[in-house]
Amino acid sequence: MLSKAMVDSLNKQIQLESYSSNLYLQMSAWAEIKGLEGCAAFLRAQAQDELAHMHRLFKYVYETGALPVLGTIKAPPTEYGSVSELFQKVSDHEQLITGKINGLMTLALGEKDHSTVNFLQWYVAEQHEEEHTMQKILDKIRNIGETGSGVYFIDRAIGMIAGGK
Ligand code: OFO
pLDDT 10s per residue in the chain (165 long)? Predict the structure, then answer.
């Protein structure tokens, strides 16, 4: 059985993972209307991943006999100035999520809640993976540059990452 503090914190994370999914899906719409099909495909795949992260938490909470709460999810932004701005925001968001997962882990360790510590390990590894992917994307954007046909090649490169997901 989980403590109330743990259930409340896991529910906040459920809401945050839902927000992440909406954020990336909304970003994919921006990319789509700019003709950036590779970026849009990558962001749609990210949105699916985040939904899976939410469901994993949702299941864990009810399996412990507690009630998962979806709550209200705020609306994500709709406009971005450039591809680099958009992916910088994805990277910043993933860093925020890593901080939240670390906070959950600190709470679980403090409570000697070994089941939740074990459950959260997967998220720790996942965040490492996602931060690494975002770093690679930001490096590519910087190396290729957004002038001239740069955006076309950036879109192709990010589309290839989406294809390998
Ligand atoms: Fe990468 O955010 Fe979910 O966990």
Answer: 899 999 999 999 999 999 999 999 999 999 999 999 999 999 999 999 999 999 999 999 999 999 999 999 999 999 999 999 999 999 999 999 999 999 999 999 999 999 999 999 999 999 999 999 999 999 999 999 999 999 999 999 999 988 766
Q: How many domains does the chain have?
A: 1
Q: Residue 70: what residue type? A: L
Tell me how far the alpha carbon of residue 14 lies from the centroid of ligand 1, in angstroms. Answer: 10
CATH of the domain at 97: 1.20.1260.10
Residues of the domain holding 110 = 4-164
Contact 94, 131 (CB under 8 A): yes
- Pick the residue whose CA is nearest to atom 3 on ligand 1: 50
Q: Which of 17, 18, 92 to mutate to test the pocket of ligand 1 (most atoms within 8 A of CB)?
A: 17
User: Taking a C-beta distance cutoff of 8 angstroms, is the pair 76, 87 a contact?
Assistant: no
Ligand 1: residues whose CB is within 6 Å? 17, 20, 50, 53, 94, 97, 123, 126-127, 130
Distance between CA atoms of residues 134 and 153, nearest Å: 17
Q: Whole-prediction pTM value? A: 0.95
